Amino acid sequence: MQEAIKADPTFTDAHLKLGQLYEFTRRQEMALAAYREAIRLQPDKPATASAYQSASMILLRQARYAEAIPYLERFAAFFAPQSAQGQRIQRQLESARFGQEAIQHPQPVTPIPLSESLKTTPSQYFPVLTADEQTLVYTVLKPEGDEDLMISSMKGEVWSPPISLSDNINTPENEGTPSLSADGRTLVFTACQGRRGFGSCDLYISRKTGDTWSAPQNLGPAINTRYWESQPSLSADGRRLYFVSDRPGGQGRRDIWRSDLNASGEWVEPVNLGVPVNTPFNEASPFIHANGRTLFFASDGHIGLGGYDLFVADSLTKGWSAPANLGYPINNADDQAALFVAANGTRAYYSFEEQKEGVSQKSRLYVFDMPESLRDRVKPVSYLKGVIADAHTKKPLVATVELIDLSNNQVVTRVTSDEQTGQYTAVLPSGGEYALYVTVPGYLFKSLSFDYTQKTRGEGMSLSVPLEPIASGKGSTAKETLNNIFFESGRFELESKSKTELDRLADFLKSNPAVKVEIAGHTDDEGSAATNLELSKKRAQSVVNFLTKAGIEPTRIQATGYGETRPLAPNSSDENRRMNRRIEWRVL
What we know:
Blueprint: H1 2-7, H2 12-24, H3 28-41, H4 49-61, H5 65-76, H6 84-104, E1 112-113, E2 123-129, E3 135-141, E4 147-155, E5 158-159, E6 163-164, E7 175-180, E8 186-191, E9 202-209, E10 212-213, E11 217-218, E12 229-234, E13 240-245, E14 255-260, E15 271-272, E16 283-288, E17 294-299, E18 309-316, E19 319-320, E20 324-325, E21 340-341, E22 347-356, E23 359-369, H7 372-375, E24 381-390, E25 400-405, E26 410-416, E27 423-429, E28 433-439, E29 446-451, E30 460-462, E31 465-467, E32 479-481, H8 499-511, E33 517-522, H9 529-549, E34 557-561, H10 574-580, E35 582-587
Main location: membrane
InterPro entries: 6-blade_b-propeller_TolB-like, Bact_OuterMem_StrucFunc, CarboxyPept-like_regulatory, OMP_bac, OmpA-like, OmpA-like_sf, TPR-like_helical_dom_sf, TPR_rpt
Keywords: Cell outer membrane, Membrane, TPR repeat
């Protein structure tokens, strides 16, 4: 081609062919020069259309959006606007204009690499963390081509040297794209060879008891098909699963799907997220935030800066919001995927793929502080963690921990504590009033109250829960406070949001038909002692009345008022007075 151009510098076809050869040998700038020369020689000939296309593609890959736009506009003139090629060029023009604007208004983010100790292999990617950000699991690519799952723990302020997640999970074949529940005890990952499955890639689940991961189980035919399933994302409590599949019935090629665990512990038939999240093109690497409503994902179908960009959408009452591009420099002209945002919404983790002349070299794990514009999108989540044990023997207990939204009596989170250690982690979203219940058969349930209607920041709290065994008869000390019973000041009528707690107590009594209880009302010291005594009696009686209407025999429950005579704390502050205004229940 070079010899032909020497013989005839106006030989347009030779310039085109030379550009293609330079592209093939990855000499992008020389290819661009050749295409530009072909365009200069014959700017309006249909044969030159491929030069406009190739030159614009090189410029788009290099994020030279302003240079690409004129070539795309000239290229578009060769096609009818409604033709498939005309529409494709319009999409590229939209991306170029979006990219040009995004670079001029960058997000204030400064990604920094995670610890050097994590770089034990050529590439690391798909990071996921527990709610407390103390445990990190990610995929590594070894020199021999094997993918494994690695785990690292935060020691002080540094990540420990990573180790294999488990010999029960990692094999000589590939394991990757993990997802963890908030407590780090449920894992879903992808495997494509070496295990019995339904298709090209399947999803598998493993659960951790103590320090041991169970043998992975295929998620079954509802989730896995003969098509491609990968890139899972578990909800914080492990009861909802998002994943990517190219199965029929979607919007395009690879779509995001969702499934829930039913009461029997089985995954139900997945549903496609539909528009506006999914497109006729490809969606990838969904991540559902611990708040259960903010979805981050990658797509090459929504307008972005080129290739796969990262987007965010919110689950609303009427469906998903329109996805928003996370902007530059989180997104650039290369492919982006696998973003993980911390429960408190302040940090994000992802993998950045270093490229040389368009070829991936290696991938590294990075973290950055979420910019305010994105942090405002993510409703922060707090978390509770601790140990659940017998109040007397200190033996760890397998407990069910449920978080209930008091506005609608719906379960927000349901987790169980570890069988060997009694440890649990539960997330508490902002923006509502919640009741937290800890239940174990044979024990009084523990109720806790959290008013997060004004909560704007996520935080971690340690809360170990001692449970009282059911013990009746003389000398019984088994009692608990009903922390989600609500009255207006000075009144004894139950507020409607008390129903959640009262239903719990009624269910407990129905499940334990031999148990009799005292419902005890207590007040602070504001007002006269006689008034407080009468108020405490009436409040206790209101609870008893509810229980009898719920079908509990009146002979099993008695109301007692103690007024201000049994304070839990000195009535010296508003907080102490709140503690002293309470309803207790005691096994008789």
